[in-house]
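re the bet — no i am not wrong, look at it urself. input seq straight from the record:
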Amino acid sequence: MAQFKFRRSLRFESLESRRLMSTAGPTAEQQYMLQILNEARTNPAAAAQQVTSNLSQNVISTLQYYNVNLQSAEQQISSATPQPPLAWNDSLAASAQGQSQYMANNQIQSHTGAGGSTPQQRIVASGYGNAASTGENAYAWSTSAKEAMQAFLIDWGVPSHGHRSNIQQPGVSAQNAYRDVGIGIVQTGNTNFGPEVVTQDFASLPNEQAQVVGVAYNDDGSHFYSIGSGVGGVQISAVNVQTGQVSSTQTWASGGYELSLAPGTYQVIASQNGQVVSSNRLNVGTVNIENDVVMNNPWVGGSLSAAIAALHPAPATPAPVVAIPMAIQAPVVVAAPTPAPAPTPAPVINWQIPDTSNANALTWQISAPTNPSPATPSSTTDFASVDSALSSWSTWNAQVD
C-alpha cells in the first residue's frame, strides 16, 4: 500500500511585490490538475463528485486505512463557498518543480527544501516577488494527477484538512484569496517512492489585475478537460465593448490560456484560423474569471475581423439639429384712420359789374360747393339796384380767388 505522509501547508504574509507574468504555460498533465483545482474553487459540488467517484483500488484501500467517511468528505468539499479561479504562473511552477525534484532526489515528502528553504523563500527566489500570501501542498506517493487531487481534496490522514483549505480557502474573501498557482510534477521511475511527486505552490500579490482564464479542448463526453484533449493555437480576443480596445492571446499547447484585463465589459471571442468558435459576454471586475472553450461544440461561425468590427462602438455623432419652423406672425398693420377730408373751401366767385361809371356797381360773392347747387348770394342785396346795374353790362368775368 502506498504511503500517505502529508504535512500541512504553510501560508506567509508579506508586503508589496512585482509580478512576473507567465509565458510558457503548463503541460497537459499540469493543465488537467489546474482544471480540477479551479473546479474545486468555482464549482465545489461538481469537484466533490469528481474526486469521490470512480475510485481506484489503491485509493479505496487508503481511505479504509485512514478510516475516511467518503460521504462526509464529499459533503464538506461540495459545501465550500465558491472562490475565483487560479491563473497559471511560471514562476510559481518553477518553485514547485524545484521542490518536487528535491523530494524525488531525496525520497522525502517535506515543505523544507534545498538548503533548508521555506516555501515562501523558494517562491520569492523563483521571481514571483514578495507575495501577499503563499501556500504549498506536497504529495510524494501519487500514481496520477487525478489521484493527487483526490489526496489533496479528500485530505486523508490530515485531521486539519490543510491541503483542502489551501485549495478551497474557506472563510477567505474573494479579494484576499490566492490568485496564482504553479504545479511541479516529477516522475521518479522508482517503485519505492512516487512514482509521481507533486507540489502545488499558491500565492497572490497586492492589487493584481484580474485575469480571464480557461482552456480550449475537445470534449470526450465527460464535459471536462482530459489529458490530450487540449487545442493549442486558438486565439482568444477580448473586445472592450465600451472602448473597442482589443486584447488577445493564444492557447498554449495544453489548450490553456490566460488574459489580464482591466475592469469592464468584454466580448471574449475564441477563433481558429480566423473563424469564430465561441463568443461570450463577460463582466470583468477585480478577481479572476473562467471562460472555457469547447472546440467540438457547434461554432458561432463568421470571421473574427467581422465580429470585432461589429463590436467597435460607432463614433459619437452629434444629434442632428432639427429645424423647428417658427411661426412667423404677419406684421399687424393698423391702418391709421383716414382723416376726413378737410372741407374744401367753396370757391369764391367774384362777379363785378365792369361799368365803373355806375356808382351803384355791385360785387357779388357766391360760395360754390364741390357739387355746386345754384348760386346763392352770401348776403342780402337790394335787387332793384342789381337789376339796374345788370342792364348796363356789356361783359363780365368770373374770377376764382
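see?? The radius of gyration is 54 Å. told u. also The first helix runs from residue 28 to 42. so pay up
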